[in-house]
From TrEMBL, chain A:
Its main location: membrane. This is Cell division protein FtsX. Part of the ABC transporter FtsEX involved in cellular division. It is a multi-pass membrane protein. The gene is ftsX. It is found in: Cell membrane. Belongs to the ABC-4 integral membrane protein family. FtsX subfamily. Residues 56-159 form the FtsX extracellular domain. Residues 182-298 form the ABC3 transporter permease C-terminal domain.
TrEMBL record, chain B:
This is Cell division ATP-binding protein FtsE. The keyword Transcription regulation does not apply. The gene is ftsE. It comes from Microtetraspora glauca. Signal peptide: none annotated. InterPro entries: AAA+_ATPase (IPR003593), ABC_transporter-like_ATP-bd (IPR003439), ABC_transporter-like_CS (IPR017871), ABC_transpr_LolD-like (IPR015854), Cell_div_FtsE (IPR005286), P-loop_NTPase (IPR027417). The lineage of its organism: Bacteria, Bacillati, Actinomycetota, Actinomycetes, Streptosporangiales.
């Protein structure tokens, strides 16, 4: 096998079909870029999910003196007796890991610490804030079941499931990721067809050479390799562009929203994503070339 | 060297067989003309030898190999032992004479040093010494066919197939082409030439196998073209 022969053939082929080659490179770059972005969002979502899921609590607010919640109306504040009983009920539940009691002063302090609205803070007194049980669950997925069974217990005004708040954020990111992946799949499809077409054109342009090669007994590998390499090199260039795109995306977007994220998107993750997209890109080009050659280059 | 045993070939979508129960033996070093009108099966015969087509029935042995048992993977190795020349030369227009001949060796992975040694030899054998750096378009038809013969012979094949090699060449130049084929034959290479050039067949006095409608109607050593009529 003579490498320089193969490479000169590849170079000639790429140059002859320059427009098609560019089309392949761009499609592969965009497709793989979107695939990479999808994967990056995915890794962020899962690290965020892991981080938050540990901290997700059910807040079981208790009735205050003049609460307007229908569950407390005309019943007055929760009695200490009810409070003890409720705590025991919650603790007895199999899915509950831990129950903490937060009184009005603690609630006020937490509200202050959270840097809440200063106007609101100035008129708010500790007595205005409800007491609550902070319920930590063994399995965050069981939150709604626990919530259902605590609803309507005497002295419970309202239950807030933090999971639902997070879910809407994760849901949005999930949609973003799915969209990126869907477009990536379409681009991969387009890239496959484009590569097929490029290789077909190449095979047609060089039918004279390949015909002679066949006649003098060149092996199939020798005849096909230049065409396959053409697809692979176009895919590789596309992959490099996609890598640049992903690095830029990390710096311009992911690093900018880092303040809202718990675990920054590391260069390691990015390297993994880039490697994966490159491999996917090259494998797609390889397969597309092979399949087309089988159809258009009789050996 | 080439052995056809009761070979029948019917192309898809055609009722009439291109070759109809053909049995032929060509020995090593023989020179055989394959004659007959267009569509009589000459080209099919050559394509079967190269395993470009498969027979519907019958057995073909080439260079001691049963083609039916030869895997596709090994077909290129069979073709390395068979040289081919065609009516339309099939040269690469962007390569000069030397490069066209060398191409046949490059693509089967021969070392460069070997190529540099044998290509000039074979160019001389076909009578093109001094024209190694000409481009095909600068050559006459006869000279282009000599390049094609050099390319077919450069790997010292056991068999040389020639499909109407003089079809595009005037009679005077054809004689030169035949001389080259004869020279190649004398090195021990079996030559199988399909033609309907009666003058050439008559002048060479070699074995003649005549096909008509896919059947062998004559097989004659030291024959002439039209004796059957």
């Amino acid at each position: 096998m003579r490498a320089n022969f193969i490479f000169s053939e590849v170079w000639i082929g790429l140059r002859r079909n320059l427009t098609m080659t560019i089309a392949v490179v761009v499609t592969v770059a965009v497709g793989m870029g979107l695939l990479g972005i999808g994967l990056m969002i995915n890794s962020q979502v899962s690290s965020l999910t892991n981080f938050w899921m540990d901290k997700v609590e059910l807040s079981v607010f208790l009735c205050g003196k003049n609460d307007a919640f229908p569950a407390c109306k005309n019943k007055g504040a929760i009695t200490p007796d009810q409070k003890t009983k409720l705590k025991q009920t919650i603790e007895a539940m199999p899915d509950v890991q831990k129950v903490d009691y937060e009184d009005q002063n603690a609630a006020y302090k937490n509200f202050q610490d959270s840097g809440g609205n200063s106007i609101l803070l100035s008129v708010l007194k500790p007595e205005d804030l409800p007491e609550s049980f902070r319920v930590k669950l063994k399995d965050p997925d069981k939150a709604s079941a626990v919530e259902q069974s605590l609803k309507g217990q005497p002295g419970v005004s309202n239950i807030v499931n933090q999971r639902q708040i997070l879910d809407s954020v994760f849901g949005f990111m999930g949609k973003l990721r799915n969209m990126a992946l869907a477009i990536a799949i379409l681009m991969v499809l387009a890239a496959t067809l484009l590569i097929g077409n490029t290789v077909r054109l190449s095979a047609y342009n060089r039918r004279r050479e390949t015909g002679i090669m066949r006649l003098v007994g060149a092996s199939n590998v020798y005849i096909q390799l230049p065409f396959v390499m053409e697809g692979v090199i176009a895919g590789l260039i596309g992959g490099v562009l996609a890598a640049v795109l992903l690095i830029v995306t990390k710096i311009l977007i992911f690093d900018q929203i880092q303040m809202y994220m718990t675990a920054p998107l590391s260069w390691n993750t990015l390297a993994g994503v880039i490697t994966l997209t490159m491999v996917v890109g090259v494998v797609i080009c390889l397969l597309a070339s092979f399949v087309t050659l089988r159809r258009y280059l009789k050996v | 060297m080439i052995h056809f045993d009761n070979v029948t070939k019917v192309y898809a979508n055609q009722n009439r067989p291109a070759l109809d129960h053909v049995s032929v033996d060509v020995d090593k070093g023989e020179f055989v003309f394959l004659v007959g009108p267009s569509g009589s099966g000459k080209s099919t015969f050559l394509r079967l030898v190269l395993k470009e087509e498969r027979p519907n029935s019958g057995a073909i042995h080439v260079a001691g190999k049963d083609l039916a048992k030869l895997s596709n993977f090994k077909v290129p190795h069979l073709r390395r032992r068979i040289g081919c020349v065609f009516q339309d030369f099939r040269l690469l227009p962007k390569k000069n004479v030397y490069e066209n001949v060398a191409f046949a060796l490059e693509v089967i992975g021969k070392p460069r040093r070997f190529i540099r040694k044998v290509v000039p030899e074979v160019i001389e054998l076909v009578g093109l010494e001094g024209k190694a750096h000409r481009m095909p378009e600068e050559l006459s038809g006869g000279e282009q066919q000599r390049v094609a013969m050099a390319r077919a012979f450069v790997n010292r094949p056991m068999i040389l197939l020639a499909d109407e090699p003089t079809g595009n060449i005037d009679p005077a130049t054809s004689i030169g082409i035949m001389k080259v084929l004869d020279r190649i034959n004398r090195t021990g290479t079996t030559v199988l030439m399909a033609t309907h050039d009666a003058a050439i067949v008559d002048s060479m006095r070699k074995r003649v196998v005549e096909l008509e409608d896919g059947k062998i109607v004559r097989d004659q050593s030291r024959g002439v073209y039209g004796q059957a009529y």
